[in-house]
Amino acid sequence: QVQLVESGGGLAQPGGSLRLSCAASGFTFRIAIMRWARQASGKGLEWVAVLYSDGSNTYYADSVKGRFTISRDNAKNTLYLQMNSLKPEDTALYYCARVPCWGQGTQVTVSS
């Protein structure tokens, strides 16, 4: 069955960086459209980034454009989200998704 396991979350200072990883299994990763989403406490789900199967077409939410980069390593069946210039408003539970399947999420907290 489809499994998505996120890692790499934690505490970062404003202006800092984190890299999230999502280990995928149970499907043909290299042809899948992969997504990152986040949900802050008390708020709705926000799509953060989408990476299409060709590896070059991407979508980013306006709130992260220019700061976050989504990428994939098809040899490792792994999706990444490089997050730079982090802001307190980036604090959220981050999920990897291959719709309709989701990982369990990894918490990112940005605070001084």
Describe the protein:
- The structure is a single chain.
- Strands 2, 4, 5, 6, 9, 10 and 11 form a 7-stranded mixed sheet that branches.
- The protein has strands at 3-7, 10-12, 18-25, 34-39, 45-51, 58-60, 68-73, 78-83, 92-98, 101-102, 106-110.
- The protein has no helices and 11 strands.
- A hairpin with a 6-residue loop joins strand 5 and strand 6 (58-60).
- Helix content is 0%, strand content 52%.
- The chain starts with a strand and ends with a strand.
- The protein has 112 residues and is mostly beta strands.
The overall pLDDT, averaged over residues, is 96
- What is the helix/strand order? EEEEEEEEEEE
Instruction: Give the uncertain stretches in residue-range form.
Output: none
Number of strands: 11
Percentage of residues in strands: over 45%
Radius of gyration: 13 Å
Structural class: mainly beta
Short synopsis of the structure:
With 112 residues, this protein is an all-beta fold.
Describe the protein's topology.
Elements lengths: L2 E5 L2 E3 L5 E8 L8 E6 L5 E7 L6 E3 L7 E6 L4 E6 L8 E7 L2 E2 L3 E5 L2
Parallel strand pairs: 2-11
Antiparallel strand pairs: 1-3, 3-8, 4-5, 4-9, 5-6, 7-8, 9-10, 9-11
Task: Name its key features.
112 residues, mainly beta, 52% strand
